[in-house]
Amino acid sequence: MSMNNIEVCPHCDKKMDLKNAPYKQNGEYLGDFEAYICPSCGRVFYTNKGYAEMSSFLMKKK
Ligand SMILES: [Zn+2]
Fold first, then answer.
1. What gap in Å lies between CA 26 and CA 8, rounded to an integer?
2. Where residue 4 falls among pLDDT bands split at 50, 70, 90?
3. What's the gap in Å between 4 CA and the centre of ligand 1?
4. Which pLDDT score is estimated for 23?
5. Whole-prediction pTM
6. 32 backbone φψ class: left, alpha, beta (φ>0; ψ -120 to 50)
7. Distance, CA 35 to ligand 1 centroid (Å)?
8. Which of 11, 15, 20, 47 is the most exposed place for a label (fewest CB within 10 A)?
């Protein structure tokens, strides 16, 4: 298994679903961003695109 395979949950070794996941910071909902979500443990791993959208969103918010 490749360590760079973001599509597979490192905790469950299961293939994750590509979805938009809600992002919260300090309990405040900031929006939905592209992420892989593990169907087994529910962990969310934001994609590079998701992170990029998140940071541009946070920049605008300031
Ligand atoms: Zn998992």
1. 27
2. low
3. 16
4. 93
5. 0.79
6. beta
7. 13
8. 11
